[in-house]
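Our preliminary data section would be incomplete without showing what the modeling component actually yields. Below, a chain of 105 amino acids is followed by its predicted structure, encoded as tokens that our downstream tools consume directly.
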Amino acid sequence: ATNFANSSVCEENTCYSNNIPTGVQNVTQCKAKSPTFVSRPHFHLADPSYGDQFQYGVKDKEEGYDSSFWIEPMSSIPIKVEMRLQLNIMLEKVEGIEYLFKNLQ
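Predicted structure:
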């Protein structure tokens, strides 16, 4: 499962300049330079440092996070596609609205 791996785990992903812990893909440069990152839901199979940043609500589990493709073998037509992804937006503290970010590190 190297889809979201950094180059230390999967050398083929070097071209993404993904110099962050493995399991999350930095897609910031793809659209309007918004600080956006893609991962599996609840950082499944990612470096534990991602989930450790949350006090509650992010619990990885073994089942239910995988993606799958069912392809009809004769025509190569997709019959069923299940893609489970999570979009993550990097937040930074903003002067004047500290109450929203009081626990943000």
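The chain has a mean pLDDT of 79. Residues 48-51 form the longest helix (4 residues). Preliminary results of this kind motivate Aim 1 of the renewal.
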